[in-house]
Amino acid sequence: AETDEDVKRKREDNDSSERTKLLRKTTMKRKEGTEEKMIEMMKELMSKNENMMTELKQIRQEQKETNEQLSAIRKENITLKKEIEQLSNKVETLERRNKKENLIISGIQIPTNDDKEIKRQMERFIAQELKMDVKIRNASRITDKVCVIQMENMCDKLEILKHKKLLKAYKDKVYIESELTKKELEIQKEIKQISMEERRRGNSTKIGYKKLIINGSEWKWNETAKALQKTNNTTTSKN
Prior knowledge:
alpha+beta; 3 domains; four-stranded antiparallel β-sheet; 8 strands; 59% helix; 19% strand; coiled coil
């Protein structure tokens, strides 16, 4: 016959066995729950990764298209710049051709706006002061002391420029220069600025058309470099 101790021991063994089973079930459920969560997290991460890869591909494609567009725009800009430069050169050539026989005379009082009267006035002035008999094709007033004249031919223009040194003895300061295009004026302005800087350094300079003499050395304007470049020519410059 079982004693009370035996019954008590069996009961405790059964309780322990039940607790063990319950603990195992709980542990398994927790493990299963954790694995399910991990699987869900992995699925979510994989989904996010796929979305990121898709977005990255789209970004790369957009960048490629943007780069292609930028490349096309750059090529168009280069072509456009060349066309503008060619057009600018054509305009410059036409303007220079139209002004090649023109002279600007400044320092003489011009009391009228009548082109014919200005023409006669300038012909008389040139005859009296430069001792030259020339024919002026057209003349027009710019300001009350500046006018532009167009000579009948290039030879007369060059002769006037050669004889303009006689004006040093004239009572007023009168200047005769070739009429320049806008581009030529910009170049001469830059050369004048360089000349002033050189004089401040103590160098002697003399300004010419698209050139500058510095201490006897000649510097000519280079259209490609858009700057003065030294030549092998030497001359005598005067302050």
